[in-house]
Amino acid sequence: MWKDDKVLLVCRGKPPRAGQWSIPGGAQELGETHRQTAIREVREEAGIEIEPTGLVDVIDFIEKDDAGRVLYHYTLVDWAAEWRDGDAEPRDDVAAVRWVHPDALDDYDIWSETKRVIRRSVAERGSPG
Question: What is the DSSP code (8-state) at residue 48?
Fold first, then answer.
């Protein structure tokens, strides 16, 4: 989610990534398209309205315990989007929100795949960072 040259980050308030920064997102509801999911999740987690502009990537996130058993398996569908309205504020299962310039991503505890997706979105968008 872009506003000018900054991307929206949310700090997760619940497992599996509690305390870590990421881009907004969550579970798809029955009958909902993944585009509709992106719009709804950003509204629920940050209170803003967005306009999706294109699919950036699809990633499998699989977390296992020490014995190799799968704890979590999510398929992440990452959309690029532009901010349209509202002031970002933490909602739902989010502890904090922040608009961040891509050059500052390394200052945050962010999964390497999330950084890669953001940088790919920067390149596809043609904005600095």
Answer: -
Domain that holds residue 93: 2-125
Instruction: Give Cα separations from 110 to 28, 32, 57, 91 (angstroms).
Output: 22, 27, 17, 19
Report how far apart, in Å, the C-alpha atoms of 56 and of each of 28, 47, 66, 79, 81 are. 17, 22, 32, 5, 10
Q: What is the chain's pLDDT, residue by residue, as a tens digit (129 residues)?
A: 999 999 999 999 988 778 999 999 989 999 999 999 999 999 999 999 999 999 999 999 898 999 999 998 989 999 999 999 999 999 988 999 999 999 999 999 999 999 999 999 999 987 544
For residue 27, what is the DSSP state?
A: P
Q: Indicate the number of domains in the chain.
A: 1
Distances 14 to 7, 48, 73, 102 between C-alpha atoms, Å: 21, 21, 16, 24
**Domain containing 80 — which CATH number?**
3.90.79.10
